[in-house]
Specification:
4-stranded antiparallel sheet; two-stranded antiparallel sheet; alpha+beta; 8 helices; about 260 residues; 6 strands; disordered C terminus
């Protein structure tokens, strides 16, 4: 019995020495981590590099279109002004991006600008070019499928149309604005601009949406607008409140044509 005990005592340190000599060592990174910190940092750097490269590719493409294409009528000129604004936003976002998500937001701005360019090209009878990736929430936002006009209590008139007209020169490619859907189409005024600039919707916007899109095929229901669960960027990246060359298409002063900032929903 004593012999077995002495043998056991002798084998324990010997086994430890064998492990050390074989180079087996415990992890040098924090307990619970699946990868060493250095490897995680490298992966984050690669993700940021990829996101930045993708955003730059679309931003450069938008910049080329903005520099080389001019509108020929009010609607195409407005679309190109909006495209130019999105190029400014994408360039600024790209310069400030420090995370993949920030780079993706710059990419979204550039893609939105390219959708504006395609709208301008369509009006002018030019080829639209390669198909663009969808914007965030664009599919859920639907589109305007019939012309409608709504007169609000303050007398403001808002018209939506599936095509550009003299009365509807303001295009929106469709997507989530401050979490709520704005259908793709042409409008008499950029009624979504205040929410895009501030990240919040006025209470009157719910009434406008309900009057404008209730029962319209292809557009989300008023209940879907009220739910506001599309996510997406608030778009509050405008410089000094500029939108499409500084014109909110009839929104003047501080009330934006009946849209009051005093109520958020």
């Amino acid at each position: 019995m004593l012999t077995l005990f002495m043998l056991f005592v002798f084998l324990i340190p010997l086994f430890g020495l064998m492990q050390m000599s074989s180079g087996q060592r415990g992890p040098t990174y924090p307990v619970g981590a699946t990868q060493p910190p250095r490897q995680l940092r490298r992966q984050e750097e690669l993700s940021l590099d990829d996101a930045m490269a993708d955003a730059k590719r679309w931003t450069d493409r938008l910049g080329s279109q903005v520099l080389n294409l001019d509108g020929t009528d009010p609607a195409s000129k407005q679309a190109m002004a909006d495209a130019s604004e999105r190029f400014t936003a994408a360039s600024a976002g790209l310069a400030d991006a420090r995370t993949p998500r920030q780079a993706m937001l710059a990419r979204e701005s550039a893609l939105e600008g390219l959708h504006y360019v395609n709208a301008a090209r369509e009006i002018m009878g030019l080829p639209a070019g390669p198909q663009l990736p969808e914007l965030e929430g664009q599919r859920q936002a639907g589109r305007v499928t019939e012309e409608r006009t709504v007169r609000q209590e303050d007398g403001t008139v808002v018209t939506a149309s599936p095509r550009a007209t003299a009365q509807t020169p303001h295009y929106y490619p469709g997507g989530a604005v401050a979490g709520r859907p704005v259908p793709a189409g042409w409008y008499s005024v950029a009624w979504w601009a205040p929410a895009m600039m501030t990240g919040m919707w006025a209470a009157s916007s719910m009434m406008l949406y309900s009057s404008m899109f209730a029962g319209m095929a292809g557009a989300p229901s008023p209940a879907a607008f009220e739910a506001g669960d599309l996510g997406g960027d608030t778009g509050a990246d405008f410089d000094g409140g500029d939108f499409g060359g500084g014109d909110f298409g009839g929104f003047d002063g501080g009330d934006f044509g009946g849209f009051d900032f005093g109520f958020d929903f």
